[in-house]
Q: What sequence folds into this?
């Protein structure tokens, strides 16, 4: 998603045009082509482009397609595992839960990338990030504190950092 | 071929319905607000994914198929974000009830 570096204002202009086009295509895909709806769509595109440039300035991070693919594959696998895990626990007559909090120190600094990772990890098996403590470590709520939650989360963070071009 | 696709749709949508049911059972049975959030986000997201997967072969056009996938992605994003915000509020202030 990053624009080529170089002349900063030109990069910004390119990124704005690219993102607005992408958002417009997305709007047209969802709502279909109708001239009467277009003002609403254009307003939404403007809002989305402004927000995206605010939260994710161009040239900040370099997404690697290969690593991103393995992150998506891992995410889909984890979705199946976590949904099955919750279903099994919910339908178990004896309701085997040991809910509690686990503190997981993160390597990602606070900001957009960290938020994205937290959103991803809230869909992982048995974990739900609920903000950070005073040292900046993630407080994760788990359905079963007997599971290796911190180790799993650290492994997922490594995958994520690689996908956004961190190392 | 169309029989195979029909069977695929039936299997995927049935599995999706099963996960929605399991998520709802979890919502009713789990002991506290945070555990209930787990049930909602995880089981229902998988349920929606399976229903979308089952509906894809029945989509009338590529555009309709893309819309189904976009709906799934938007719900995932909204669910993941809302679950974290609610989780943080519950941890800080305690459950509302």
A:
């Amino acid at each position: 998603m990053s624009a080529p570096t170089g002349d900063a204002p030109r990069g910004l202009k390119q990124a704005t045009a690219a993102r607005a086009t992408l958002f417009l295509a997305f709007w047209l895909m969802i709502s279909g082509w109708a001239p009467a709806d277009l003002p609403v769509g254009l307003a939404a595109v403007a809002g989305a482009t402004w927000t995206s440039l605010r939260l994710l300035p161009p040239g900040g991070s370099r997404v690697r397609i290969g690593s991103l693919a393995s992150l998506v594959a891992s995410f889909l696998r984890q979705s199946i595992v976590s949904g099955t895990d919750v279903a099994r626990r919910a339908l178990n007559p004896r309701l085997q839960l040991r809910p509690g909090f686990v503190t997981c120190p993160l390597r990602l600094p606070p900001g957009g990338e960290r938020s994205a990772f937290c959103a991803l990890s809230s869909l992982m098996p048995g974990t739900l990030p609920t903000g950070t403590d005073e040292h900046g470590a993630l407080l994760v709520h788990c359905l079963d504190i007997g599971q290796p939650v911190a180790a799993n989360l650290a492994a997922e963070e490594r995958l994520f950092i690689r996908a956004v071009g961190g190392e | 071929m169309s029989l195979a696709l029909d069977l695929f749709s039936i299997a995927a949508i049935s599995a999706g319905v099963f996960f929605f049911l399991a998520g709802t059972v979890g919502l009713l049975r789990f002991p506290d607000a945070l555990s209930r959030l787990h049930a909602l986000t995880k089981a229902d997201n998988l349920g929606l994914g399976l229903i979308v997967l089952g509906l894809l072969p029945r989509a009338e056009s590529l555009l309709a198929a893309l819309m189904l996938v976009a709906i799934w992605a938007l719900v995932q994003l909204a669910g993941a974000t809302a679950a974290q915000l609610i989780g943080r509020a519950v941890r800080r202030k305690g459950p509302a009830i």
